[in-house]
Write a structure and sequence with these properties.
The protein is an alpha+beta fold and about 120 residues long. The protein has helices at about 45-65, 85-95; strands at about 1-5, 20-25, 25-30, 70-80, 100-105, 115-124. The longest helix has 18 residues, at about 45-65.
Length: about 120
């Protein structure tokens, strides 16, 4: 059985998808762009956007009684791979060893002009 994750601790879906889906002890969260949940605004610059995207991930995790230590896989989408080193430093502020598996991909464009999107899979 699958359950829909819905919380105001992260931005609502901006299309026909769920913020996340729980199946058993696994949680599949939709990618988080750096929209501030309370305002819908997006900060400027890769550093501020990386922090906000990860705060949104934290909101999703918190809403389900999870933390970053429950994350087993992340996918980081960047609109410019030149930001990889900067994002790595910020990423390390949220995740600790043992780090989850991760993919980082440069994409042509992200929703709403975001510079970063972070998607996670977690296990309770």
């Amino acid at each position: 059985m699958k359950n829909v994750v819905k919380t105001d601790q992260a931005p609502g879906a901006i299309g026909p998808y769920s913020q996340g889906i729980q199946v058993g002890d696994m949680y599949f969260f939709s990618g988080q762009i750096p929209l501030v949940p309370s305002t819908g605004e997006m900060p400027e610059g890769i550093e501020a956007q990386a922090h906000q995207a990860l705060k949104n991930v934290k909101g999703l995790l918190d809403s389900q009684g999870l933390s970053f230590s429950n994350v087993v896989k992340t996918t980081v989408f960047l609109d410019n791979m030149d930001d990889f080193t900067t994002v790595n430093g910020i990423y390390a502020e949220y995740f600790v060893e043992p780090y989850p598996a991760r993919s980082a991909v440069e994409v042509a464009k992200l929703p709403k002009g975001a510079l970063i999107e972070v998607e996670v899979i977690a296990k309770k």
